[in-house]
Amino acid sequence: MKQLLRSVLNKCGIEIRLVKNMHAQLRDAFLEQQRLAGKNNVNVVFDIGAYDGGTALKYKQYFPNSTVYSFEPFPITYAKLKETAQKHLFIKPINAAVAEKVGNATLHVNSMDATNSLLPSETTNSYLDDLTKPVDKVNVATTTVDFVCEENRISQIDILKIDVQGNGLAVLKGAEKMLREKKIKLIYIEIEFIQIYKGQPLMFELTDYLNKYNYSLFGLYNLVHQKSGQLAWGDAIYYCDELESSIRSMN
Hints:
By secondary structure, the protein is of the alpha/beta class. It has helices at residues 2-11, 22-25, 29-37, 54-62, 75-87, 128-131, 145-151, 168-173, 176-180, 203-211, 244-250; strands at 44-48, 67-71, 91-94, 97-98, 103-110, 134-143, 157-162, 184-192, 215-225, 231-240.
């Protein structure tokens, strides 16, 4: 019966195969962060590119002891984030873009506000152009990871989550002190493999930069492809070398 079912499904273009290691095939980025950092060991999360606070709520589900510092520069979305924070006091909203320096910058507002970026959009000749079409510009305040840590006397970031539409390297450069001192345990960051924003660093440049501070790539998640099949973007987890021995023990 199993062979007959398999034969029928194969004719319909459906393949059935045995997955020996389900964890290797189905990888949830939040479960991975929980497994690596420890459910009850995470106290401080930086949610950079927090949007309306939905990700902060998700982090609280996976890490019940966490306080989430949520950064969102766009005024309309920040208002929604602030409403969420008023209902959930573990969220600390900060109305600023996180970058390489403290100051001000131009936020490029696009047709889909989730694609807003400090970098102008690049033409990709794909469906992405409809999402990143420029519609406005807004002046926003900028801050850095190192400055916020110093200002709030934060000695360690357990998880640094970065989703800033192509400007991730600038965020990391603004966290140079925390990276150098191994005060960031895990980094969960959006990565790109094609130019969606002008001058943006691609995944390999982020990896090279983090390698200088002995942070290693752990895994890739939520990979998205163009219609042509070309890999476009996704997410990645990096970890500091102090976690190397504990990761080896999991193998």
